[in-house]
Structures are given as structure tokens and as C-alpha cells.
Amino acid sequence: MSAAATPISSGAFATAIHDLPLDRLHGVAAETQNSMRHLVRSNDQLEPFAAQGDQDCRDAIRENQEVIARMEERLRLLRVEVESRGMRWGDAEVEGKPDPGATETDSSVDGVQAGASSVARVNGAHSGQGLDDEELRRRLDERMANGDGDSDDGVHL
Q1: Tens of pLDDT, residues 52-85
Q2: Which of 54, 56, 71, 156 places its Cα 20 to 30 Å from the Cα of 85?
Q3: 128 vs 28, 78, 92, 115, 157, CA distance in Å?
Q4: pTM of the entire structure?
Q5: Which of 115, 104, 75, 77 has its CA nearest to residue 92?
Q6: Residue 148: what pLDDT?
């Protein structure tokens, strides 16, 4: 962010999310939590250098902490908006904190780990079942062997 740019105020954020559909509110929450996770990881990596007296690292950690605080406020506002619509806010979202054990390759929705044979949940509801690479390859090979992929009608998505 440039020195001249200022973050959107909490009031403006609350106004902006008011008309968003519920699934988008949860998407914004997931994006925010992901960004927070990255900032926490960055601070963890900067900490040893800051402890050795690197002022730039200290400044970066402080700035990241300020951004994390703003993001926590946005998660709170998202929760208020979802609950004002009579909907339940998911358990992971209630915390509003990034999972300290999460890694860059982690992918989860509402605290449910997505991956091979897992079911992702959005606000407690099933949104589909994931396939690992081997299962997807097996199904594709099976369809191709059965002639299901040799249609001259083009690709059907």
C-alpha cells in the first residue's frame, strides 16, 4: 500500500458488505482469514531478525499487526452482517483468528480441511466432495475406456 493510500473505514466496509449475497460474505471471510494467516507467518519469519535489532523487520511486524487488527474487525463486521440475516456464523469464523498450525498449502473452509476424500463445509452445509488426483484419474480413465469421452458433440462442462 502506498503512503498516500488509507484503508477503508469500518463503517464503509459494513456498508459495502450489506448487499452482498451470503456466499460472498463467507468468501470474503475466507479470503480475510487467509490473508491474516500469511501475515502471521510473515511475522514469525521476521521475528528472529527483529530480535537481533533489525528496525525494518520491527516496523514490518508492527504494520502487519495493525493490518491483522483491521482484518479482525472486518471479520467481526462480517459476522454481524451474517447474523443480522438470521443465519449462523460458522465455528471457525467465530474465532476470527488464523490457525497457527496452518501452512501455505492448507486449504480449509470453516476449519474443515479440504483434500482427498474430504467434504468441504460452508457454514455447516455440504458444498461437495473433493477428489484426489488418483480417484479423478481413475474415473477419467474409466469414462474414456467406456467410450464416454469419444463424442463428436464437443466438450460438455
Answers
A1: 999 999 999 999 999 999 999 999 999 999 999 8
A2: 71
A3: 20, 24, 19, 12, 17
A4: 0.56
A5: 75
A6: 54
Tally of residues, the chain: 157
Position 130 scores a pLDDT of 62
User: SS3 letters for the chain?
Assistant: CCCCCCCCCHHHHHHHHCCCCHHHHHHHHHHHHHHHHHHHHHHHHHHHHHHCCCHHHHHHHHHHHHHHHHHHHHHHHHHHHHHHCCCCCCHHHHHCCCCCCCCCCCCEECCEECCCCCEEEECCEEEEECCCHHHHHHHHHHHHHCCCCCCCCCCCC
Confidence band of 36 (pLDDT split at 50, 70, 90): very high
C-alpha cell at 116: 482427498
Give the amino acid at 6: T
Q: What's at 122, amino acid-wise?
A: V
